[in-house]
Amino acid sequence: MPKGIPSAAVSRLVIYLRVLTDLEADGVGRTSSDHLAAEANVSAFQVRKDLAYFGSFGTRGSGYVVATLKRELRRILGLTRQWNVIIVGMGRLGQALAAYPQLDQYDFELVAGVDVDRAKVGTRIGDLLVYHLDDLHQLLAEQRVDIAFLAVPVGAAQAATDALVDAGVPGILNFAPTVVSVPPAVTVESVDFLAGLKRLAYFLHTPAHDDGAVTS
User: Fold this and answer.
1) Are 153 and 161 a contacting pair, CB within 8 Å?
2) Measured between alpha carbons, how far is 98 from 144 in angstroms, rounded to an integer?
3) Is the same domain home to 27 and 121?
4) Model pTM?
């Protein structure tokens, strides 16, 4: 990510892109920072500030052309090329991820599964051929892998991460509720369901937040 651009701003770009995609599907040709702000639960100033990190996309008084801004956000987010994805850990979560219906909408292509269970190795789960974790180098020699979904138990997360780093996988989406260590050249994003539930419990438990809004 370019220097000086907050990670939270990139997260909001993803929300704006979802809103624009829905607007385009509904046949809407133009939108405004006010509308994007309302959908993303931020201010119109924040929308304009987020977009200004990457250029000038709107016209004062007439807003944004939906198709144009959507195309630009896809370019900024790197969604104009195919990303090859493997799933490491083909248990219940891994199998659920393999069946997720919208990955290919943004050119995330599931290319293989990985596990340490010899009973699964060499079989197909859905459309994915399952490799052993020890065979990651062979898998990467056969095809490019950009991202790994890490869906293993907590106790196996760091070892699996180390194997991915050693094999040359540059991006990891970590579903294990633990922090994994990687070198600077590897990027990790964590998806922690339990942390989200605990945050939700806090806001439901705390009456001072009467509007229910969560800000970051």
Assistant:
1) no
2) 18
3) no
4) 0.84
